[in-house]
Each structure stands twice: as structure tokens, then as C-alpha cells.
């Protein structure tokens, strides 16, 4: 099933997300999220982006899909990198965001097994981006005030379009 992507201004994107108990419905949801992500040419998709406030997301940076449930970032490196980010929920906007180069994470996979792994580079960036969604944070919340002012009109247009489409 392909889900509609919620866009900037949707309250669902800033809500608190609940921990997940894994069952067949959650496994199907993860499969549907992957299908939606691939259809929209994304590299990650968090449940709040499809209107479901649960702690799970999917990622595929070209190394095969990861299904992530109840994630935690348990360590972040001191060294950071600023690089352009975009988001399916903030279409057409790309800005530099500072992210840790290396992270250590812990999460459950779709079978309920605990996964602990160290990530770096693009995978670490994607994981941090999707994990932010679970905390109600969008990448535009992490950009500089100057960059934020530069895109403020675009953000307002996204909000207006969302409200118009909602009617």
C-alpha cells in the first residue's frame, strides 16, 4: 500500500511518537513504508510522515533496506559534517544541516531482535534525519536562522498548499 506523505505544517510531524510492540500489522506497515519510500524516491521514511505516530522508520541508502523500530542513538562522535539535506515532507527545499559523522545506535528489527551498530557517513546522516522525525523535529528546524529566513516564504507556501489540499 502506498501512503500519502504528510508535508510541512501537518501537526502529525511534530507530535510525540509511541513505542512500538511488534506484530503482523507493524511488519506489514514497515513493508508498506518501504514501498512508499521507493515510489517517492526517498532514502528514508518515518511513520509520522505518513500520519502514524509510532517509533519506527525505514532506510535504504543503496545497501539494502533497514527496518528500524524504537531506535536510540547511544553515542555520537564529536566530529560533524555540514551537508545538504532534503525531506519528502518538505519537498523542493534543500539546506545544509550539521550531523555527527559517526553514531552508535540500538533498535529492534522487524523480528524483535535487538540490533546495535556503528554507522558513519551517509547512513549515519540518514539515521539521524529519520530519528529526528520520531522526536517531532524536521531538518528545517536544524538549519541556521539565516537559512531559515531565506526559505520562510517557501515554508509558508507548503503550509498553505497542505491546508488547501486538506479541504
Task: Give a structural overview.
By secondary structure, this protein is an alpha+beta fold. The chain has a single domain (11-166), classed as Peptide Deformylase. The protein has helices spanning 24-39, 121-134, 145-166; strands at 44-46, 56-59, 66-76, 80-87, 90-100, 102-108, 114-120. Strands 1-2-3-6-7 form a five-stranded antiparallel sheet, with helices on both faces. A two-stranded antiparallel ribbon has the order 4-5. The chain is globular, with a radius of gyration of 15 Å. It starts with 23 loop residues before the first helix and ends with a helix.
Q: Cα distance, first to last residue?
A: 23 Å
Compute the number of helices. Answer: 3
> What is the CATH T-level topology?
Peptide Deformylase
Would you tell me the overall average pLDDT?
95
Q: In angstroms, what is the radius of gyration? A: 15 Å
Structural class: alpha+beta
Compressed to H and E, one letter per element, the order equals: HEEEEEEEHH
Name of the CATH homologous superfamily = Peptide deformylase
Question: How many discrete structural domains?
Answer: 1
Q: Which percent bin holds the helix content? A: 25-40%
Largest sheet: 5 strands, antiparallel
In CATH's first tier, which class applies?
Alpha Beta
Find the count of extended strands (DSSP E, 2+ residues): 7
List the strand order in the largest sheet: 1-2-3-6-7
Poorly predicted residue ranges: none
Strand percent estimate: 25-35%
Per CATH, the architecture is: Alpha-Beta Complex
Overall outline: globular
Structure summary:
With about 170 residues, this protein is of the alpha+beta class.
